[in-house]
Structures are given as C-alpha cells and as structure tokens.
Automatic annotation (TrEMBL):
Protein name: Endoglucanase
SUPFAM superfamilies in the cross-refs: (Trans)glycosidases, Galactose-binding domain-like
InterPro entries in alphabetical order: CBM6 (IPR005084), Cellulose-bd_IV (IPR006584), Galactose-bd-like_sf (IPR008979), GH (IPR017853), Glyco_hydro_5 (IPR001547), Glycosyl_hydrolase_5 (IPR050386)
CBM6 domain ranges (all copies): 436-571
Species, as recorded: Solitalea canadensis (strain ATCC 29591 / DSM 3403 / JCM 21819 / LMG 8368 / NBRC 15130 / NCIMB 12057 / USAM 9D) (Flexibacter canadensis)
Amino acid sequence: MVFIMLFFIPFCGYTQGFLKANGKIIVNEGGNKVILRGMGLGGWMLQEGYMFRLSSFGQQYKIKEKIEELIGKEKTEEFYNKWLTNHTTKADIDSLAKWGFNSVRLPMHYGLYTLPIEKEPVAGQNTWIEKGFTVTDSLLSWCKANKLYLILDLHAAPGGQGHDLAISDREPEKPSIWESEANQQKTVALWRKLAERYANETWIAGYDIINEPNWGFTDPKDKIGNLEKENKPLRKLLIDITRAIREVDQKHIIIIEGNAFGNNYNGIMPLWDNNLVVSFHKYGNFNNLESIQGFLNLQKENNMPLWLGESGENSNTWFTELISMVESHDIGWAWWQLKKMGVNNPLEIKITSGYQHLLDYWSGKAARPTPTEALAAIEELAENLRIEHNIYHKDVIDALFRQVKTTETKPFQHILIKTGTVVNAVDYDLGRQRFAYYDTDTASYHYTPGVNTVGNKGRSYRNDGVDIQKREDGYYVYSIESGEWLQYTLNVEKGGVYTVKLIVSAGVDSGEITINHNGIIEKAISIPNTNARWTNVTFKYIKLKAGSNKLVVMANKGGYDFKGIQFDRIK
C-alpha cells in the first residue's frame, strides 16, 4: 500500500531508486515491496498478424511485403514510420498512469536497433541504428513523467527464438538464434549496448532479456521445447547476456524466461546472479492454484521473485480472477496488450471500410484495390492507431483494477430515467460475474483440453461473458441461455409508477423473461416467435423511486435476443 500512496505524489524529482530482487519479492531502494502492475505495448515495435486480423500472414515482414505490393516501397516505409509515431504516444502513457498501472513492458524488435547479421557490412561487427534507441528514449521520458517503471523486453531477437514465427518476426529459411553463433553474439552485444545506455535510469525496472523461447534443443519434433530436460543452450545464452549486462550495469533487475513460452525451467537453475527475477506467462487455462503451483515451488526452492510477465487475451472475469490470485502471492504482472483490433484490451483499433477491403482482398474475397484506394486505407489505419481515435474499453480497466478489490457494481452508463428513456441492453452494470450479471460461459480456456467456452461469443462492445453482437440498428445481447441475468443501476428522475418495456426478438424457440426491481420479482412473460423482428414485452405498474434503483432482467428460459429497456411513467 505504501507504493500506491507514493505513486500519486505529484512528480517533483522523487524516485524510489532502482528496483531489486529481495528474497521472494521485488523491493525499491527503501526496502518497500513493489507489485508491478503493467501493460505491454504489443504491436508497436513488432506487429503480430492476429492483432490486425492478419493471422494468415503471421510475421511482420510478411505484412510489410503485402503492403509494399499495393503501395510501393517508399510509401510503405513512410507508413511504418507513421506507425512508430502514432501507435504509442505520451497520451497513451499518461492514460496508463491515470488508469492505475505503475509499469510498462516494451516488446522490442532488434531490427530497430541493429542490422540483421546477413546485412552487416563487416561480418561479426554490429551496426547500431539510432531509430530504436530514440523511440525507447521517448518512451522512457513519458514513463518518468508519470512515475511508471519501464521494462525492456527483447521480443524479437536476432534470428528469432522459436518456432512460433510471429512473436519474433522470424524468417524460417534463415538461421534462428539457436542455430547461429553470430545471432547469439549480436543478441549479447545488443543487451550490453542497452544496459550501457540505461545503466543510471532508475525508472527502468529491469531487462526482460529474451521473450518466450520455444525450441526443442534435443528433440526436433518438440517444437516448443515443452519436453526439454536440460535447456543447456538457453541457460548458456541467458548467462552470457547477464555477464555482458553486468559489465556496464550492476544495478538493474534481469528477468529471465524459460523454454516453452517462458514455462519450462528444467536445467535453468541454479540462479547465477543475485538480482534475477523469473518470469512466467499464462494464457487460456484455469485460474486455480494448481495452474501456478510449479512456479511457486520454483520460487520457494530458489528464494527468488516471480513476475507474470505476460497474460491477457481473455474475458474480464478471467482477468480479475488471475490478478487476484497472483497478487495474493506477491506476484506482479504485465498484461498483453494495450491496443489491437478487438475488445479484450483497454484500447481497440477501429476497422474502417477501406481496411476491411484490404482484408477481404488478402483473403480472396474482394478485388485488388487500386494503389490510391490501398494508400488511403493504409494512411487511415495509421491515423486510427492514435489513442484519440481508439475505442476505450472501460470494462477491461475496471476488471483489472476495481473488480480485483470489490464485488460492488456501478452503472456502465449514467443515464437519467424519465418518460421515453431507452436503456441499451448491452449497458448493464460494471462488475463481476454473479454480481453485475450472470452468464453460463464467462471465459476462454483455449489451452485446456475439452473445455470449449469462449466468453462473449460475439467478441464485440464489451469483454464480459455476456454474448453481444451488432445489427444495423445497434448492439444487442444474444445467445441468451436459461438462468442468465443482467443488472442495471438506474437513476430515476421522478419516483412513481412506470411501464417497463423489454425490447426482444425470438425465433422458433420462444423464451421466457421477467424482471426484478428493487427486490420485487414480477411474473414471467413468454416471448413468442417474432421471426427475428424486435417486439416489446411489457411489465405494467412497476414502482420506481426517485434516485438509484436496481433492475435485473432475468431469463427464466433462454432462446431470445435482447436489445433494450424502455421506461414510460404512468403516474
């Protein structure tokens, strides 16, 4: 709690000094425990296809090639410069601080800092590119201004660090980092260069030296390295990087990641430095103690801090559960990622009609755009990267911070209820599952065999378990199942008797619906087959008091869609 209080002291040159590993926790120079609550900037220095509906391309270099085919090399280079300028700005970092984050994880692409080995004018030497360092300097200055710690993460290492090609922009026909001594030496040299540059920067929390290695060293069929028993090449590289960093920087934390996407630490121990933090990543499995027990055992055996260096890509319920669990064990976290095309992150990049045309063309569903059309779409995408053009998902932020601490609900939209007011069904309260709403499917467990839930099936508007999609006339709740419910906190202008109309539609299977207003449950009403057209289900003589009221819409029987609630005052 001390750290959180200090975080809001106006900036006046105050610093907590270098962070360091102290037994099982991270502390500042005052010896106070620090729980890192961070956000990753995925997609900024390194594009992964899925973030932009381009999974079929995967790697950034392939995306770049496709764009270049449409608008030419010069315009493509201009676009990528705009990308770096617009994707993450000071306004983004200011927002992270305002929302409650205290740290930022920067996924770096080595190609912004140095040349690939095959392009070096002199083999074995390193050409340094100022662009990457300048962008990093700017980010650090924004973090310092907001008293946010910055973690440098080598996300794309020279040659690429695994068989998951997109996460490191790896070109598989070229030697990986594990197949090339030159790539390893370039990686070591890059970290020495970074450490030398930032050695005295106290707002750098640490160096996450290689992201998610995934490689079978002893068994080529073990693509991700999950079965590795010794991980000797990985341990050697981690030690070599550490040694190079310590030549110029003895103070910063060094963060290590095991094989198999940061999860296989066989053979990595014992630790070789007294200021190491062990990172693990967690996606798509259950949030129970069993899911992290192996790391807790590792922590106990080696007396070292753990850090959940990457997680996310799930529902709000899953987010709240995971953060509650790891923080109860003094484990900090960094979410993945701030913005992309989709609703399960704080900021959503809009898909324009022009960009959709590009997607359709690349997937074989539309004609090739003209160079003018393609350029307009690409330039529009570059502008839509900026935070002022993003869609802000306050429900995600609420789940990451407020819902971790309380089960209290709050209105999603502050709407004054009077005659004729219509509340959108999708604007149910902010809060946890079973408190603000109940849905039978609240999260995705895509890495858990036999569990096929997805959370919000429509993947639009909000990131709770409630299923939402869009027609031409707006968003609505669909795929409603028996027993599900939604709560609305209403601010009523004048107390009295109201008619409450639920705007619904049903197909062949009619549903049954009722409401609970301030603890009073009305008799359920059947919803007839409306042939998918909207109709009203009316509850008459509903007493609402002036000020705050709770209204719960309950599905006694599912099988219908729900668009809104209209209020008409009778007396």
